[in-house]
Design brief:
6-stranded mixed sheet, 2 domains, Glutaredoxin
């Protein structure tokens, strides 16, 4: 009974604490603007189309080929190559590491050791958001580790909105040997 009174009291407190805000919002009073000062509002984005190239690496800390030192070296070399190949304002280059690992900490430690990724996805094994997006939804490649994708997409910014095109597959390497050969050939990854 005491717990119910405590919860009821907390709910009443929250209701009365938010009534002034809700009233000003309902009647259209502009006091809510003070809550969203210019420093707290997101800045409008420039209206432009950005060409976005994305390196996506799939690996697992339980896979010997994924954890081999040369894998991290080759993936790092690919990111450096993409950055030098696309070193103008027309392109952005980012690297996503996806660990096919159920344990978030193990996956994070594994991907962090590469020191090249701008974004990490780990946890939930073959059903994490990276695996679902690239293996199961878009079906850009078959589920296997290690592998690397190089993707292209256009990002259009209109005011506060961002539209992102579908990913286009520019390059796929199942295993690291094919990526090593491509890097050694000097062929560009993105047609210019």
């Amino acid at each position: 009974m005491h717990r119910i009174r405590l919860i009821y009291g907390a709910a009443l407190f929250l209701l009365f604490a938010t009534l002034p805000f809700l009233h000003s919002w309902y009647v259209g009073h502009d006091d809510t603007e003070s809550l969203l000062s210019s420093e707290n509002r997101p800045a409008p984005l420039d209206e432009s189309i950005q060409k976005d190239v994305r390196l996506v690496f799939f690996g697992s800390p339980a896979c010997a080929a994924s954890t081999a030192d040369r894998t991290a070296e080759v993936v790092g070399e690919l990111k450096r190559t993409l950055n030098s190949e696309l070193n103008d304002d027309e392109y952005t280059v980012s690297a996503l590491g996806v660990s096919i690992e159920s344990d978030v900490d193990k996956g994070y430690t594994f991907l962090s050791s590469f020191k090249v990724f701008d974004e990490l996805i780990t946890g939930n094994g073959w059903l994490n958001s990276g695996a679902v997006e690239y293996f199961w939804r878009q079906e850009l490649t078959e589920p296997a580790v290690p592998q690397v994708l190089v993707l292209y997409r256009e990002v259009q910014r209109e005011g506060r909105f961002i539209n992102v095109s579908e990913d286009s597959l520019l390059f796929k390497s199942l295993g690291i040997d094919e990526l090593r050969r491509r890097l050694d050939s000097g062929q560009p990854f993105v047609g210019q």
